[in-house]
Amino acid sequence: MQPTHEPPAVVVDGTDPVAYHLFAAADYLDQFGWIRKRVYSDAIHATPAACVMGALFMVIAGRPVMACADLSTDQADIYRHTTVTLARYLFGRHFDPVTLLDDIADWNDIHADDTDTVTTALRAAAEQHTDNHTGGAR
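-> structure tokens emitted (138 positions)
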């Protein structure tokens, strides 16, 4: 993942943007590392270790950002859809949209055991999203 990566606004190689970014966030964490309690490990590196939310920011924006306000309108829309998809996978259909981001952050900081737990969840959420929206076609 390069820091100048531009996220797709449309389907890429048969994968819609939500699944694409969930898979990409898992790959980002595998390559650069997963952390707890902070969005990024540091502000110096172009590709710092990140929490699950930071990894999503990195693959959507192509750079470290701290909040949705730092995203373009299109990027914020992808981020919103991606986090809702991840929440559906983690918490089922009965998640609270008001506390969605805090709930995902708490899962990252408290409940996730290791990088493999997080990347497995991201990839499974992407697979579930693809199955639900395309009948499993990729």
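The radius of gyration is 14 Å.
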